[in-house]
Design brief:
The protein is an alpha/beta fold. It contains ten helices and eleven strands. Helix 8 links the parallel strand 7 and strand 8. Helix 2 packs across helix 4, helix 2 crosses helix 5 and helix 3 crosses helix 4. The longest helix is centred in the first third of the chain and has 23 residues. The N and C termini lie far apart (about 55 Å).
């Protein structure tokens, strides 16, 4: 047993953080502005500003800085965001654990179909076992559509391919983008490389074509689709080369690298996007479950995929 004086010494030395200030801080990041955050946490804008000022004074660091007409996180703010999200989630989890009722209700989750096949079975199976009375409605759409739905309040959460222009999201996984072809064919050796990619607005498509143009490789987009199954079918049939994140590489696909004459590709950031507003305990529980599930996934590259 610790003597109470031990804890008194700890609290005198430590700067105890206010969970309400942290919740406001997270709301500012998620909504993109102090004004919108004020509506989310049901405070005036001046009260929100004062909370952030006090939080900055507590840790002795600036969390936000001006960038022209906009406000963005400082490096210390980026570091604080991870802790703040965890503390807010843990607070909700603690309160929920003392509730007599199981988590009930409906939560709306969006996910692109190229992530759905790989991530959803594990996420939904474990969440359903822990929360049998919760209903999860899943919407499969391309990332731009999902981002619009979250911002409009039509979805509670969405797993997306994150780029900054789509709004704030919590990065939960980073994977390498890879060139892939069929193991049974040699379409990658054709002088004009046939490609199977997403629509012109797809970020992976942009990365692929820019890399080929920089390397001077001739190509043509033979198949274009939002549907990952259609793109994967073209690759497996030996009709085209595509780009996929590591977790989406399937048995029967060959990973193409420098020795095959293919330039390196950037990483892919997978983010969790949340609707603005006060989260229910159920939504917060699913969000926490998704983050833990994606963080715990091991290397996903199939053993048969050759470099």
């Amino acid at each position: 047993m610790h003597d109470l004086t031990d804890y008194d010494g700890i609290f005198r030395m430590a700067h105890v953080l206010d969970s309400d200030q942290l919740r406001t801080f997270v709301a500012i990041v998620d909504t993109g502005s102090f004004t919108k955050a004020a509506d989310v946490v049901h405070k005036t804008q001046s009260a929100v500003s004062m909370q952030i000022k006090r939080l900055e004074e507590r840790i002795g660091r600036s969390l936000f800085e001006r960038d022209g007409r906009h406000t963005k996180l400082t490096e210390d703010g980026e570091r604080m965001l991870d802790y703040a999200r965890r503390i807010v989630r843990l607070n909700l989890e603690c309160v929920g654990s003392f509730s007599d009722a199981d988590l009930k209700g409906r939560v709306r989750l969006g996910v692109p179909d190229d992530y759905a096949d790989r991530y959803l079975p594990e996420i939904l199976a474990r969440f359903s076992r822990s929360n049998p009375q919760a209903e999860v409605t899943v919407v499969c759409e391309p990332t731009p559509n999902l981002a619009d739905c979250v911002q409009a309040g039509d979805l509670d959460l969405a797993i997306i391919t994150h780029v900054d222009r789509r709004g704030p999201a919590e990065i939960v996984r980073v994977e390498q983008l890879l060139w892939v072809a069929s193991q049974r064919h040699k379409v990658q050796e054709e002088p004009v490389l046939p490609l199977a990619l997403g629509r012109p607005t797809c970020n992976w498509r942009k990365s692929a074509t820019e890399a080929l143009e920089r390397s001077g490789r001739c190509y043509r987009v033979l198949y274009s689709s939002w549907n990952s199954t259609a793109v994967g079918a073209a690759v497996m049939a030996g009709l085209a080369v595509s780009v996929l994140p590591e977790s989406a590489v399937r048995p029967g696909m060959r990973i193409l690298g420098h020795s095959d004459g293919f330039p390196p590709l950037p990483t892919c950031r997978i983010g969790l996007m949340r609707a603005a507003g006060e989260q229910s305990t159920l939504v917060a529980a699913l969000a926490d479950h998704i983050i833990q599930s994606l963080d715990n996934l091991a290397s996903l590259r199939p053993a048969m995929a050759a470099e």
